[in-house]
Amino acid sequence: MERTLSIIKPDGVERNLIGQIVSKFEENGLNIAAMKKVRLSKHQAEAFYAVHKERPFFGELVDFMTRSPVVVMCLKGEGAVAKNREIMGATNPEEAADGTIRKLFAKSIGENTVHGSDALETAKEEVAFFFAESEIY
Ligand code: ATP
Ligand code: MG
């Protein structure tokens, strides 16, 4: 049983897509092990995406992620890390497969509706970034 972190980004929450996105995870056999709505501070967004701090889009990414609330979830299930990435689709929605969240809902490579951990090790760190062990079921 794996755990991974999912974030419904500001563009998804703003457009009232929380339920449809959560349904995608549940329909594909992932469980919502923890969930909360939070407004990221600039400091939190910079720390969360620190791996991208040298990239040209970093400032834009931090501004986007902090402009309104997000929904953070710990997803649980067999092969949850890879399964979540599959359900999300490619980073660029124009390249995302049919039926994926980004194909269905994302407007651009920047505002791409969901985040998902990219490996088991980063998933552990990212889940712990938002949730105490006692909040995960
Ligand atoms: P995420 O980490 O959010 O799940 P990802 O792993 O598919 O997305 P990354 O390469 O980690 O993609 O990029 C992190 C985020 O930075 C992207 O989801 C997107 O919001 C933003 N981003 C990536 N590339 C660009 C770009 N060329 N222009 C603008 N924003 C970008
Ligand atoms: Mg990533």
Automatic annotation (TrEMBL):
Major role in the synthesis of nucleoside triphosphates other than ATP. The ATP gamma phosphate is transferred to the NDP beta phosphate via a ping-pong mechanism, using a phosphorylated active-site intermediate. It comes from Pseudobacteriovorax antillogorgiicola. It is an enzyme of class 2 (transferase). ATP binds at residues 9, 57, 85, 91, 102, 112. The gene is ndk. Its EC number is 2.7.4.6. Keywords: ATP-binding, Cytoplasm, Kinase, Magnesium, Metal-binding, Nucleotide metabolism, Nucleotide-binding, Phosphoprotein, Transferase. InterPro entries: NDK-like_dom (IPR034907), NDK-like_dom_sf (IPR036850), Nucleoside_diP_kinase (IPR001564), Nucleoside_diP_kinase_AS (IPR023005). It comes from the Bacteria. The active site is at 115 (pros-phosphohistidine intermediate). This is Nucleoside diphosphate kinase. CDD domains: NDPk_I. One of its GO terms (biological process) is GTP biosynthetic process. Residues 1-136 form the Nucleoside diphosphate kinase-like domain. GO terms for molecular function: ATP binding; metal ion binding; nucleoside diphosphate kinase activity. Belongs to the NDK family. NCBIfam families: PRK00668.1. Homotetramer. GO terms for cellular component: cytoplasm. Gene3D superfamilies: Nucleoside diphosphate kinase-like domain. PANTHER family: NUCLEOSIDE DIPHOSPHATE KINASE. It is found in: Cytoplasm.
